[in-house]
Amino acid sequence: MRAPELRGRGWLNTGGKDLTLADLRGKVVVLDFWTFCCINCLHVLDELRPLEERFGDAVVVIGVHSPKFEHERDPVALAAAVERYGVHHPVVDDRDMHLWQQYAAKAWPTLAVIDPTGYLVASMAGEGHAEGLSRLIEELITKHEAAGTLHRGTGPYVPPPAVDTLLRFPGKAIELPDGNLLVSDSARHSLAEVSADGETLVRRFGSGERHGPFNEPQGLLLLPAEVATSVGYDVLVADTVNHQLRGLALATGEITLVAGTGKPWRSAVDGPQDALSADLSSPWDLAWFDGKVIIAMAGIHELWWFEPQAKTIGVYAGTTVESLRDGPIPDVWMAQPSGLSVGGDRLWIADSETSALRWIEAGVMHTAVGQGLFDFGHVDGPAKEALLQHPLGVAALPDGSVLVADTYNGAIRRFDPVTDEVSTVDSGLNEPSDIVVTRTGDVIVVESSAHRLTRLAPGVVKTVTGERHRTERPPSAVAPGALTLDVIFTPAPGQKLDTQFGPSTRLEVSASPPELLLDGAGTTTDLSRALVINRAVPKGVLQVVAQAATCDVDEEFAACHLTRQDWGVPVVVTPDGPSRLPLVLRGLDED
User: Where do transmembrane segments lie in this chain (predicted)?
Assistant: First the structure.
């Protein structure tokens, strides 16, 4: 089919020009449907970078920003995200999700490929498609170069002017023993030690380059003194985009790799693993709890544990299903946990994609604030009615209450477990991402998009009865009763399904609320499933996790690949809805 025209509210990284498909004729165009809150979308940005470098004169990547949260509709916030994450290609602002619907996207992220003559030739959901996408691009280049329809040359990307500040999109911070602050200077790919007032640079760790020892680092943890002495480093660093943990010795500045292969996690491994042999997935924050390091493994919606002295690592809580479900760990559901703090016997968690504040105590997870993947807002009052919007940071206070960096509301919120109430401590901040409570009781906020540390005035509490929001992502209509779920998967060029170690595919289905599904929940090896939808439940979310194993064909030492996607599909039950729900894990034009 002819690719639908690219229309949006505006464009970034084009020097002010609105692009059309006619402007891109002669190039292979890769559309990347993303939203800047989504960790899987950030993974795809990193997967696309090598392809952009390799095929730069024949391929144009276009980011299509189709927002989930209300804050992501703000064009200023979008421009900041494009800089924060080093997006070096044009981005169209699909504020009203027009292009999302035109290209039939159903998940963040989704990739669509347009050939040099303007035809849509492929669509694929999720991450992990770099190898298959590379093969497809090679085929398209060969075909269209031979036909004379490929036009090599520079693309439409125009970089924005550089801006110089002390910090650039800082992520997390901790207080050091001497009172200075250590900050993960994420967009500068380094750690910055600054004075106690947060305004003077003392020293910097790391090269400052994306391919240096740090790549968009986030969480920091000052280890207990006896542990630090034993392992030879003082600070543990969540090296987020490198999918690794690194140790920093403050006296010498030495940086040591302590966990992670550098490859993103693709499949589960039972039991403890050697830390340096384990694949991690966007570790975002760290805390010392129950005698070990707990890692907010944002990329796979889990918490992991790490034993620095034993050099082992493993899963602490979560199943990789992206949703909200409490209960005994590890069989709980989270959605991009991004902030951790310990208060007494509780581990507090900022669970960003469910806009939730949660805690673990005595091996059981609870939710204090939060209602699900698609409900958010800025509402104070009783905790069960209060709403947050994509919080990234949390800090337990000595009185037992908890402060939350309510990132997309630009606010600091407070949850009081005694009264079970939520209030607003401060607002008007620019994407606060972390909170530091110093030994003297000062509260310092990492104001990420303002590129600074901000000290909160004591005693300020506001009450906000703001708007409630639901994601305006168009729901899929489904019929009550029998519904066929089909996950469509076609191996990439040069690959075949890999059955040498058993079934090559896996499908896991659940629902929120659980009553939405009368039958069909569970895990099977078939990518098609007969479901029964409850006509008494008018709407909900189908959680679908699908994966397919492939390997290269006609290769002596064939490489193996795992394609995996986690969908949270909002559905509305209607009598005239379709009785089939197709989801594309990877779809390729056979021509």
Answer: none
**Cα distance between residue 209 and residue 188, in whole Å:** 7
- Chain centre to alpha carbon of residue 116: 31
Q: Residue 571: how many CB atoms within 10 A of its CB?
A: 21
- State how beta strands 59-65 and 28-34 pair: parallel
98-136 in b/e form (b: 16+ CB < 10 A) is bbbebbebbbbbbbbbbbbebebbbbbbbbbbbbbbbbb
540-586 pLDDT, tens digit per residue, is: 889 898 888 888 877 665 677 777 787 888 899 999 999 999 988 86
Burial class of 304 by CB neighbour count within 10 A (0 to 12, 13 to 18, 19+)? buried
Helix or strand run (H / E) with residue 51: helix 39-54
Three-state SS sequence of 319-381: CCCECCECEECCCCEECCEEEEEEECCEEEEEEHHHCEEEEEECCEEEEEECCCCCEEEEECE
Alpha-carbon gap, residue 292 to 544, rounded angstroms: 32
Helix, strand, coil shares of the chain, percent, nearest 5, are 15, 45, 45
CA 123 to CA 197: how far, in whole Å? Answer: 50
Residue 74 neighbours by CB under 8 Å, 6+ apart: none
Which contiguous run of DSSP H or E holds residue 101? helix 98-102
What single letter denotes the amino acid at residue 261?
T
Q: Find, among 423, 341, 434, 339, the residue nearest to 388 by Cα.
A: 423
Question: How far is residue 329 from each of residues 74, 334, 477, 501, measured CA to CA in Å?
Answer: 37, 11, 34, 29
Main-chain phi, psi angles of 116, to 5 degrees:
-65, -15
Distances (CA, A) of 472 to 70, 323, 539: 9, 18, 14
Torsion of CA 423, 428, 432, 436, to 10 degrees: -60
* Overall size of the chain counted in residues: 591
520: helix, strand or coil: coil
Q: Say how far apart CA 493 and CA 489 lie, in whole Å.
A: 12
The model's pTM: 0.86
CA-CA distance, 446 to 395, in Å (whole number)?
12
Whether 174 and 221 have beta carbons less than 8 Å apart is answered as yes
H or E stretch at 496:
strand 495-497
* 305 pLDDT higher than 90: yes
C-alpha atoms less than 13 angstroms from C-alpha of 292 in its C-beta half-sphere = 14
Task: Locate 442 and state its tokens.
Answer: 């000062």
CA distances from 441 to 6, 456, 457 (A): 52, 11, 12
Rounded to whole angstroms, the Cα distance separating 324 from 309 reads: 33
> Is residue 511 predicted with pLDDT exceeding 60?
yes
Return the SS3 of 229.
helix
Nearest to 286 by CA among 117, 171, 116, 448: 171
Given this model, what pLDDT does residue 590 score?
38
Other beta carbons within 10 Å of 147: 10
